[in-house]
């Protein structure tokens, strides 16, 4: 496996080799903590204190999350990766998801299908009434063409009853008109 393929397959290892404080050149006389100051690739930076705009972090939030998950899956401690500004916001108990606040046993519970209303009503001893209780049948709304279909088929059947007689009468008038236009003499 080439180095490029290994870096694609294990992005955490390539990140640690490239960005960890041990791989950065040491500055004489200064003992910064891990990923302190401008060396944090997860934090936005300013080119200078006078600059108005911030540069985006070198690693996007999506890539940060991916690296954190990979480190967690490998069982590495959380301080292997630099602190993330987004992690500080989501670490508060109010901002965390309800699923994250549940205990581990509760998280493993499987969801159960919705309890039908009939079981509830049976347990309470109440009668079951549907939305169409006391009506002749379920209300049919349907599309416009569905509502008009019955009337349209009735009209069509009525028109087709005398269709043969009408067609014969029309043919006869056409033959009569043709015969009337012909001259009786051959020249």
TrEMBL record:
<feature type="compositionally biased region" description="Low complexity">
    <location>
        <begin position="86"/>
        <end position="95"/>
    </location>
</feature>
<dbReference type="GO" id="GO:0005762">
    <property type="term" value="C:mitochondrial large ribosomal subunit"/>
</dbReference>
<dbReference type="GO" id="GO:0003735">
    <property type="term" value="F:structural constituent of ribosome"/>
</dbReference>
<feature type="region of interest" description="Disordered">
    <location>
        <begin position="74"/>
        <end position="95"/>
    </location>
</feature>
<feature type="region of interest" description="Disordered">
    <location>
        <begin position="22"/>
        <end position="59"/>
    </location>
</feature>
<feature type="domain" description="Large ribosomal subunit protein mL59">
    <location>
        <begin position="12"/>
        <end position="172"/>
    </location>
</feature>
<dbReference type="InterPro" id="IPR037507">
    <property type="entry name" value="Ribosomal_mL59"/>
</dbReference>
<dbReference type="Pfam" id="PF18126">
    <property type="entry name" value="Mitoc_mL59"/>
</dbReference>
<protein>
    <recommendedName>
        <fullName>Large ribosomal subunit protein mL59 domain-containing protein</fullName>
    </recommendedName>
</protein>
<dbReference type="InterPro" id="IPR040922">
    <property type="entry name" value="Ribosomal_mL59_dom"/>
</dbReference>
């Amino acid at each position: 496996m080439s180095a490029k393929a290994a870096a694609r397959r294990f992005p955490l290892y390539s990140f640690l080799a490239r960005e960890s404080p041990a791989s950065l050149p040491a500055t004489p006389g200064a003992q910064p903590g891990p990923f302190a100051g401008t060396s944090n690739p997860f934090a936005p930076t300013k080119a200078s204190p006078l600059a108005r705009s911030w540069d985006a972090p070198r690693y996007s939030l999506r890539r940060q999350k991916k690296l954190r998950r990979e480190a967690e899956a490998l069982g590495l401690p959380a301080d292997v990766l630099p602190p993330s500004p987004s992690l500080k916001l989501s670490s508060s108990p109010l901002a965390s998801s309800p699923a994250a606040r549940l205990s581990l046993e509760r998280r493993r519970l499987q969801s159960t299908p919705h309890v039908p209303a009939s079981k509830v009503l049976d347990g309470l001893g109440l009668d079951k009434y549907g939305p169409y209780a006391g009506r002749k049948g379920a209300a049919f709304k349907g599309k416009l063409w569905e509502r008009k279909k019955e009337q349209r088929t009735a009209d069509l059947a009525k028109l087709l009853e005398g269709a043969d007689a009408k067609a014969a009468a029309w043919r006869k008038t056409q033959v009569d008109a043709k015969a009337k236009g012909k001259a009786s003499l051959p020249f």
